[in-house]
DNA sequence: AAGACGGGGGC
DNA sequence: GCCCCAGTCTT
C-alpha cells in the first residue's frame, strides 16, 4: 500500500475534532494557521475561540484597533504575528473586498504568511497541490525515510519540501497535509513515538536502524542570554500609575510595560539611583523607592532569561502621564507584567 | 546563513 | 536544564 493510503487510513481513524476542521473558509483557516505557528494546539485553541467570537469576519478584525488585537493575543507570544495578522486583515478587507487570494502564489505575499502557511491555506481551502512542511512533517519524514540532513539548514528545507511534494496526494492535498501533521503530533511524537503499532513500522528506516531518537537532526541554536530588568512602578496618589509602550525591534514590540531601567547585573537601590537611565526617568523629582520583590522574578523566554525587580516609586508631582489603576488591565502587556499585576493589584481591580 | 522572536509543557 | 511546538522576518 502506498504512503498516502496508509497515512490517510490512519488519519481517518485517529484525527481530533478541531474547530477549523469543520470549515474551508479562508478567514478561519488563515486565523488558525497564524495562531498555530510555533504553538501547540492546546495553547492556541482558546485564542482561536476568542478571536472568532470577537471577530466573526475579516472585516471585524480589520475594524479593531491594534491595541485591541494585541490584548486578545496577550499570552500567546510572538506578537509580530498579531501585528501582521491585523495588517493583513485590513489589507484583505479594504483592498481585496474581504476575499483572500486563492492561490499559494497570492497567499505567500501576505504579511505573516510564509511557505508553510500559504501551502496550508491553499491546500485546505482551494485543494491546490502544495505540500506543507512543519515541525511534524520534518520529524515524520526524517524518520521514515532515514534522512539526517539538518531540518533547519537551507539544504534540509529544500530536501524535505521536495520529498513532501513527491509524496503528496494530488487528489486530496487537504487531507494528506493535515494527516501528515496529525500523525506527527499524535503518533510519531518527539519522545516515545508509538513505533510498535505504527502503520509504517515495516518500512521506517529510523526504526530499522535504531535511529528514531537521533532523528530529526537539527542545528543547535544560540545560547540563552541573561538580562536584568528594573521596572519602575509608580505608585501615584489616587491609584494611578505609568505605562509605556515598547517600540522598536526587540521583544514585546507594541506591548505596554512600566518604565524600564535595564542594568548589566543585579543591583540594589543605591546602584539603581546612580544609573543614568534611572536619572533620565526621574530627574529632579522628589521620590522614595521600595523594592517589591525580595528575589528577582525570573521570566524565561526561549532565547533570554529576564531577571526582574519591581520597584515601587512614590513620587509627587511626577511629570509623566499617568493612567487610572483600573485601566491598567485594558492594556496589552507581557505575561511578566500581567503576573505582577495579579499579585500587586487590589482585588477590586481584577 | 544565522538570529530574533514568547510562552507553555514534557522529561 | 534542554527540547519542542501546525514558522516568519530581518540582518
Question: How are the SSEs placed, and which strands pair?
Answer:
Blueprint: H1 3-14, H2 26-35, H3 41-54, H4 58-63, H5 66-73, H6 80-95, H7 104-107, H8 115-126, H9 135-144, H10 154-167, H11 173-186, H12 205-208, E1 225-234, E2 240-241, E3 244-245, E4 256-257, E5 260-263, H13 269-274, H14 276-281, E6 286-291, E7 297-300, E8 304-316, E9 323-324, H15 335-344
Parallel strand pairs: 1-8
Antiparallel strand pairs: 1-5, 2-9, 3-4, 6-8, 7-8
Helix pairs in contact: 1-11, 2-3, 2-8, 8-11, 9-11
This protein binds a DNA duplex (11 and 11 nucleotides) through α2, α3, α6, α8 and α9.
Domain HhH-GPD: 35-186
Enzyme class: hydrolase
Keywords: 4Fe-4S, DNA damage, DNA repair, Glycosidase, Hydrolase, Iron, Iron-sulfur, Metal-binding
3D architecture notes:
The structure is a single chain. With 350 residues, the chain is an alpha+beta fold. It has two domains: 3-214, Endonuclease III, domain 1 (Orthogonal Bundle); 225-349, Alpha-Beta Complex (Nucleoside Triphosphate Pyrophosphohydrolase). The chain is 42% helix and 13% strand. Strands 1, 5, 6, 7 and 8 form a five-stranded mixed β-sheet that branches. β7 (297-300) and β8 (304-316) form a beta hairpin. α1 crosses α11 (173-186). The longest helix has 16 residues, at 80-95. It is elongated, with a radius of gyration of 24 Å. The model has no long low-confidence stretch (mean pLDDT 95). The chain binds a DNA duplex (11 and 11 nucleotides) through residues 32-44, 75-81, 84, 111-117, 120, 132, 134-137, 139, 152-154, 177-178, 181-182, 184-185, 190-192, 218-219, 221-222, 249-253, 299-304, 334-335.
